[in-house]
Amino acid sequence: MEEHIIDMNEKNTLAMKLLHYFITEKGYTPIILQGAEDEIWLENLDEDYKIVRIVIKYIHNDEQYKFDIFKTNRILRKIKKKTLSFKLNTLSIFLDLGGSVNLNNFKNDNIAAIEVHEDNDVKKNKLLKSIFPDLSKKIKFSEEGVELFIKVTNDINNHNKEDQKRVADVFSPKKPYVTYALIAINLFAFIFPTMLGNLDKVYTLFASYGPFVKMGEYYRLLTASFLHGGLAHLLFNMYALWIIGVQLESFIGKWRYLVVYLFSAICGSLLSVAVTPNVFSVGASGAIFGLLGALLYFGYHYRIYLGTVIKSQIIPLIVINLVLGFIAPGIDNAAHIGGLIGGALIMIGVGVKYKSSRFEKINGLIVSLFYFIFLVYMALFI
Prior knowledge:
CATH architecture of the largest domain: Up-down Bundle
Shape: elongated
Distance between the termini: 81 Å
Low-confidence stretches: none
Largest sheet: 5 strands, mixed
Mean pLDDT: 91
CATH superfamily of the largest domain: Rhomboid-like
Strand content: 5-15%
Structural class: alpha/beta
Strand order of the largest sheet: 1-2-3-4-5
């Protein structure tokens, strides 16, 4: 059996304390990188500094430091692509710099670099005090040596277990009862009137039509989203609802999902009335585009897990369908756009589990309300 000796020198001790703080207190996640030796990369896309590097290796001169900047930027470009990020503010914390290295000579817009050698340096550093004001207090431990190593390791492991439970809670498959119910209502609203020979009458009574809506028949803004102009239209939308809805309902939960669906449906109908007031409009596509908008916002928060899917599937699907809506006749693209925007905004309002703050949700609800009022004004008063 091999024996491993734990080297608890001052530099490694400080690195462990910093690692403990950023993971357990600030919610950063370690990134596994190839070729990044003697440095720890941490990621939290919800913080101002989304990447924190703890650099343990000795950098003895400016040339070596310039190469470190080059390598860091190269890795950051890869992370940007993976996480759909335009800018990644990065903090590099160097624990072992040579005396000839002057960090001020190599300014970088995206990378802030600081040097700390001991706990007191953390307390004195102006940048650290401004962005992580509690850091100097949180790295004070009564334990030392191996006891400190054991405590830090246990705390990080417990934190990671909690994170894994949260991710499992969000992404574990759940029965999509709301999606089942919505599909059943859409099918019933088409099949039953068709069997009775009353489909045209149902369109007349419940389809979205500007003049009738302006006369006070506001229910049409919602009922129109449960009607379809033919079997092919119905089957296409129900297939899309099944593919998108099952996943999104599982991710965000039933009540959030239902709110997104209904709000998107109404927003799609309102924009449709505003753009084409004298045309009868039916279909669930406005609500379905709203689900796509919500999925985009959800995926943004969980882009570590869904970044590839969003880039390769969700965004292309939205773009292709919007382009087809402008090219092909008979497609109510206004409903698509209204629902898409409404779904994304109301998703901010209802929030993403374990990710959204109360401040974000309140802002989302306020913006959603203003968007809804704007659509009502455009549809009913112009």
